[in-house]
User: What shape does this take?
Amino acid sequence: MVRRPLEKERVCLDGGRRTTQLMRDSLGGITRAMPRLLVAVVIGAVLGLLGPRYQSLGWYSLIPWGLAGLALGYWSPRTERFVTGALYGFALCFGFMIAGYSGAAPLVTRLPFFALVGVFGAGCGLLLTFLGHLLRTKRAGSAANPVS
Assistant: This one.
């Protein structure tokens, strides 16, 4: 059997390429993002679990949470900032609710409500990381165009 070139048969493999290619990153970049996402979850959980200990500071206790969210947004690449912020905010609020719970009902019965509060926290974390990323882009823009 004689094999004809693929061009004559008009067979296109993988989006028009004439030969097959191995995918270099079969997980779509998630392996590079995983450490940053894990750091966001750990920071959020630690701050959330420690939150009831310094809650007596009033609204000042929100300052470390906000600074951490801004720092994560500043540090995260553009493609990951929303996921990073959502994970940070969810872990922060969920951990805070668990650490501060002292009710009579079992904790397991309150987890769905805590998860709902965590979704609100995910939105807040998303906003903070977006603002942190804006700070980074403004700083990079001002460094590229210095005023003389």
